[in-house]
Amino acid sequence: MHPLVMSEVIKVPTMAEYMGLGKVPEVLFWVGCAGSFDDRAKKITKAFVRILNKAGVDFAVLGTEESCTGDPAKRAGNEFLFQMQAVTNIEVLNGYEIKKIVTTCPHCFNTLKNEYPSLGGKYEVIHHTQLLRSLLDEGRLTIEGGKFKGKRITFHDPCYLGRANNVYEAPRELIRKLDAELVEMKSCRSRGLCCGAGGAQMFKEPEKGDMDVNVKRTEQALETAPEIIAAGCPFCNTMMTDGVKAKEKENSIAVMDVAELIAAAEDL
Amino acid sequence: MGFISQILFAVVLIAGIGYFVRNINKLRRNIKLGKPVDRSDNKAERWRNMALIALGQKKMVVRPIPGLLHIIVYVGFIIINIEVLEIVIDGLFGTHRVLSFLGGFYDFLIGSFEILALLVIVSVTIFWIRRNVIRLKRFWNPEMKGWPKNDANYILYFEAVLMLLFLTMNAADHQLQQAGAAHYAQAGAFPVSGMISSVFGGLDVASLIAVERMAWWFHIIGILIFLNYLYFSKHLHILLAFPNTWYAKLTPKGQFDNLEAVTKEVMLMMDPDADPFAAPEETEGEEEPGKFGASDIFDLNRVQLLNAYTCTECGRCTSECPANQTGKKLSPRKIMMDTRDRIEEVGKNIDANGGKFADDGKQLLDGYISREELWACTTCNACVEACPVSIDPLSIILEMRRYLVMEESAAPNELNVMMGNIENNAAPWPFNQMDRLNWKEEIETT
Q1: Does A201 lie in the same domain as A111?
Q2: Nearest CB to B385 within list A78, A91, A190
């Protein structure tokens, strides 16, 4: 997928290694369960890590010390399990004196940012599209539009990034930087339709109905005649990918994370 | 005669307001069946939200057509209520158009009321057409059968009739003024009723007075009836939208509260110094162990119960709900309607049992809201975002899921598998935590 002409080795340092060196990274990259285990989501993780390397961001991951934030347990109603996870994670994060966290998963983002503070975990938490935007603003990262110039890209707002936390512009600014034609769905931003995965739905069969939510959302995306459906969440990505397959459009329409778009534009 | 009608007016007014106050007290009592919740923080932001969302109708105009029509009806009703003030003074003191000393300004007021009244009639007619002729989908969901459907139409009829009575009264008054009848001094401008007043052109003064008085009486009695209808109707929102927007959650929509009772237990479990065999601490007035989550209205908080009374069943939440849009049973509006119906049932039970609730073997869960509805929610917050008066149906759904999972262990099996995975290997899937960084090798070797 990416060229083998790599002039530098991609580095993925862990917090334990940093601690061994007595250093503290600029930011912790919280990978999340999907980003760690799911084959599709791992590609997003890797794309983001390549950009971090390219921009020279001093980051580290928790690696095997990371565990589920507890988001799906909390949304399913299991407050015990959620808080057990939260307290365990907070112990690890506070042990490393983490101040700033970036994550590619809006669910982790929401939970770490909003639900950890009252349990003792107070950090500055940002979504990866927010970090990428600030890297651009600071001139640490430049984007060549070439590859995506004029391509029709529609952005699907993840509920836990958009409505839940009012982050709408960061991913859109990145897409515009690609010189792409950003086309909006009828339901976008605060009225964006869910992909169907939130609230622990990802892990169960839907209740009886006329159709699946992800197919409905994909239909809305297809109305914009996009070449690419951009997402900012590994779960949305899976749902939209499945939706595109259900509509038999997988050969003409790609579902990509914003980080993957930027990595591809930069031949990373 | 004048004296009698003044007394009659006072009796009607006191009865109308008295019955309303009685029902408002009942409403307060019912809301207090819920758990107390502290929303006294950030007062400035709360007042601002109330001013923008309730008074300023900020969220109504997200949908421009009904938003604009609603603003007309709303402004019409608020402004025309200035006229009610005059009616009350006239009624109690036997005066006629007591505020007419305002002169040109009075003409301006009456003239504006008339134009607004006409606009209200037009808007209400369009609302009725949208509901009954165009049959917008959100007004025809399954929960809108029977009373909710009739209630909505009754409100529209009420509003139209009140406005028509107001215009009729003015039209007759206008004719009387022109005829130079005693007590009907030249006052007010009648841009709308002036156009229809010729209908009464052939009547003599006595008949005109009869028409004017009848319209006047029916108008004020109608308003009092409407006021008292509120408690039994979805139309309570005209009052409760204000407290409801004030008490609404201010934290990010994605932030769900952390249950404090759970935190205590988790902290104890995580504390290496805690003695697992220690006798429970003797604290004074120890409460009985609380129930986790909600299976009935007593387990919900007061803001959630206020939410239920505030809901005017517009269905914007339901029309934005991904589950509902794809044919699932879940309808956030129904969650609110069910909650209110159950509160009312409990309230009546309390009334019938001398002020104490007698267990009726029913509850909100299963009795009103099914598990299928609760498990269909994606927690996407579309319903919360859509509500023009800041109702939060999602918080009730979550609270009921908490009850199902923590009190009944009744999650769908796949979710139990997911939660088992998190417990055992710190991820919702059955992968080993030690493999979490395997992707690192894949990237470093390419």
Answers
A1: no
A2: A190
SS3 A257: strand
Enter the tokens of residue B65.
């057509």
> Cα separation of A241 and A250, whole Å?
8
Alpha helix (H) residue ranges in B180-259: 193-196, 205-229, 237-247
**Chain B, nearest residue to A158 by Cα:** B380
Predicted structure pTM score: 0.95
Identify the CATH number of the domain in which residue B300 sits: 1.10.1060
Mean pLDDT over B264-290 rounds to 69
Tell me the average pLDDT across A255-268.
94
Chain B contact probe: residue of A12, A75, A78 with most B CBs at under 10 A:
A78
CB–CB of A36 and B437 under 8 A?
yes
Q: Are residues B180 and B295 in the same domain?
A: no
Look up the domain containing B381 and give its range: 260-277+290-433
Q: Is residue A28 domain-shared with residue A104, that is, in the same domain?
A: yes
User: Residue B181 pLDDT more than 80?
Assistant: yes
In chain B, % of residues over pLDDT 70: 96
Has residue A138 been placed in a domain?
no
Q: What CATH number is attached to the domain comprising B171?
A: 1.20.950
Amino acid identity for residue B314 in this structure: C
Find the Cα–Cα–Cα–Cα dihedral A167, A168, A171, A172, rounded to 10°: -160
Q: What pLDDT is recorded for position A5?
A: 44
Q: Which helix (H) or strand (E) holds A213?
A: helix A213-222
Q: How many CB pairs under 8 A join A and B?
A: 233
Q: Give strand pairing partners of B73.
A: none
* Cα distance between residue A171 and residue A246, in whole Å: 26
Per-residue model confidence (pLDDT) at position B262:
94
- Looking at the fold, whether B184 and B310 belong to one and the same domain comes out as no
Its ipTM equals 0.95
Burial class (CB in 10 A: 0-12, 13-18, 19+), B46: middle
Min Cα separation B137/chain A (Å): 16
Beta bridge partners of B365: B369
Residues B87 and B210 reside in one and the same domain: yes
What digits encode the pLDDT tens for the residues A100-141?
Answer: 999 999 999 999 999 999 999 999 999 999 999 999 999 999
Q: Do B236 and B264 fall into the same domain?
A: no
Q: Do B322 and A88 touch (CB under 8 A)?
A: no
Contact list in A for residue B388 (CB cut-off 8 A) is none
B2 CB-contact burial (10 Å; exposed 0-12 / middle 13-18 / buried 19+): exposed
Distance from CA of B132 to the nearest CA of A (A): 25
Residue bearing tokens 């009985």? B288
- Phi and psi at residue B333, in whole multiples of 5°? -60, -40
B322 and B358 together in one domain? yes
Residue from the list A79, A198, A203 with its beta carbon closest to the beta carbon of B378: A198
Q: How many independent structural domains does chain B possess?
A: 2
Do both B330 and B425 map to the same domain?
yes
d(CA B412, CA B47): 42
Token pair for residue B175? 């004719």
Q: Look at residue A159 and give its three-state secondary structure.
A: coil
- Nearest Cβ partner for A77 among B293, B381, B385: B293
Number of domains in chain A: 2
- Left, alpha or beta for B213 (phi > 0: left; psi -120 to 50: alpha)? alpha
Same domain for B241 and B367? Answer: no
In Å, how far is A150's CA from the nearest CA of chain B?
30
Out of B398, B442, B444, name the one closest to residue A77 (CB). B398
Domain boundary among A113, A133, A153: A133
Tokens standing for residue A253: 């329409």
Quick one: which H or E segment has residue B170? helix B147-179
In this prediction, residues B91-95 reach a mean pLDDT of 92
- Is B272 or B69 the better-scoring residue by pLDDT? B69
C-alpha B96, offset from chain centre: 36
